[in-house]
Amino acid sequence: MATSSRLDARIPQGSLEDKWKKYKSSVPLVNPANKRNIEVIVVGTGLAGASAAATLAEMGYKVKAFCFQDSPRRAHSIAAQGGINAAKNYQNDGDSVHRLFYDTIKGGDYRSREANVHRLAEVSGNIIDQCVAQGVPFAREYGGLLSNRSFGGVQVQRTFYAAGQTGQQLLLGAYSGLQRQVGMGTIAMYNRHEMLDVVKIDGKCRGIIARNLITGELERHSAHAVLLCTGGYGNVFYLSTNAMGSNVTAAWKAHKRGAFFANPCFTQIHPTCIPVSGEHQSKLTLMSESLRNDGRIWVPKKQNDTRPGNEIPEEERDYYLERRYPAFGNLVPRDIASRAAKERCDAGYGVGSSKLAVFLDFSAAFHRYGQGEANKNNITNASEAQILEWGKAVVKEKYGNLFDMYKQITGEDPYEVPMRIYPAVHYTMGGLWVDYNLMTTVPGLYSLGEANFSDHGANRLGASALMQGLADGYFVIPITVGAYLAGEIRTGKISTDHEAFVQTEKEVKDRIEKLISIKGNTSPELFHRRLGKIMWDKCGMARNEKGLKEAIVEIRALREEFWKDVKVMGKIGDFNPELDKANRVADFIELGELMCIDALTRNESCGGHFREEYQTEEGEALRDDENFMFVSAWEHIATEKWELHKEDLVYDNIKIAQRSYK
């Protein structure tokens, strides 16, 4: 059953360009004296969480911040490599707020909300100014201006970067702001704590139950608002580019307490990942999309060609992205590049021992940059070896840490032989449904960054994750949370002795005790691996009705087996990573079922959701705008039962078209 009656996106009135401006000037405010009496919990301290916590504390709110790592600096945001988008138009190449807005909507295959995306584009420039002021060491041109590189899905250069470690540098900037407030006493920092449930009183979110991961103790924490900034759920596939600890538990607990889960089947497969090397792996490593800026992707023209890439002559190479998509070439969006690589490998043109890889080659870039260095220094008779040496030096300055990482993992030197890459699970566009204020369907419960669904539609453009996380934390939530907290001034301090806290803590404790008491024969890790194989095979880069129906049956059987046969070592009252893992795997299993149900009900292909039954003659995604121009927002009813709510997507400012990057 589907309904749209309970969804109100609370999008402000007025023209698209004026919505955010007018909203900011009319939203209710909380005066400074009252802010000191209002408590806010922030769960997760990556880019979205750290920036939100620091900013809210700076504004005067009392903040509690939670992370399951030993330090906020270990948040997975640190792993982002390539850059962050912003419409600064430094290159004078025609960029603008509107173009960033349009590229994001188009890149998401017309499945994102106009008002949220335009706001994101509007505040993007402010993020760069904020981070420069914090001392983030963005790359600069010779004259001192910030440098930009190209990313997929756009024809301008708008991606700001700090070598191949942009996420790390941005996180350190947000972390410095967070720690400043910790030092001032406005933020209470809870490291090694995991949120295990949401507490609701009279329908409103009033706090969380957290577990101290060192002692095993359960703790009650109250607040007037709770912000979930807990990242994505890509690890439902077991193998992904996500950190090993990344999980869905906080968002899933919120979902089971009434927060709708939106578009769960929209998964991004990243095209430039180091290929799987064997059954032993538990994680995959990403090569930044920025490498597509200078590298060329190709496969041999001959099937089952076993020669090393540097021994295959130019005329025997198929630069398939440049051939199929001449307008964008190697810079097509991630979903298109990923499917194209899969198609070539499935057709027998894959490389490497597994034949599940394509080449990412920098030889042309070495030559181009080397020739540029020769020209700069007025050297007209340079040898080919000198040109290559100079070119490699330029590439090393731009991408050196990525090349070093590739060599350490594969044992191959990418300066001498082309990299081998293959698509892998990377980012999840789905997440908790939120309105324009970033509030979920539970009053007082917000979701920021990758944990929500709001900005990327069915496919995220590269370098837009960091942009969304910092936009939500620095510039959106500090304004929108006031609309709710202005009505909470008279609430006063919320007691954790309330029956709702007692009952919720008991439910968390009962679940933990049940996990420990099963004493089966199978580790949580093995259940996770089995779930991941089902998800990748039947709800991965391509899906079909038969496979999805089989996956739902298999996942339900896996869940039953899990609760009868999982073996959790150790004790409840100790440091127990196995127990933490079991808890997270149980949630992943339930999420996997919903992802397959969502993919089964969306009878179209769009962005990262590719149903094999719905494609063009050329193998491209075939949308059905007449029947599926909506956000799927799922309400949890009971085990194996959800109700679908639809938020219709209305585009008043752009022309809807079938995506083309040719």
From TrEMBL:
GO terms for biological process: anaerobic respiration. It is a peripheral membrane protein. One of its GO terms (cellular component) is plasma membrane. Its EC number is 1.3.5.1. Residues 528-661 form the Fumarate reductase/succinate dehydrogenase flavoprotein-like C-terminal domain. The keyword Electron transport applies. It is found in: Cell membrane. Its cofactor is FAD. Keywords: Cell membrane, Electron transport, FAD, Flavoprotein, Membrane, Oxidoreductase, Transport. The active site is at R334 (proton acceptor). It comes from the Bacteria. GO terms for molecular function: electron transfer activity; flavin adenine dinucleotide binding; succinate dehydrogenase (quinone) activity. It catalyses: a quinone + succinate = fumarate + a quinol. InterPro entries: FAD-dep_OxRdtase_2_FAD-bd (IPR003953), FAD/NAD-bd_sf (IPR036188), Fum_R/Succ_DH_flav-like_C_sf (IPR037099), Fum_Rdtase/Succ_DH_flav-like_C (IPR015939), SdhA/FrdA/AprA (IPR030664), Succ_DH/Fum_Rdt_flav_su (IPR011280), Succ_DH/fumarate_Rdtase_cat_sf (IPR027477). Residues 40-466 form the FAD-dependent oxidoreductase 2 FAD-binding domain. Belongs to the FAD-dependent oxidoreductase 2 family. FRD/SDH subfamily. NCBIfam families: PRK07573.1, sdhA_Bsu. This is succinate dehydrogenase. It comes from Dyadobacter koreensis.
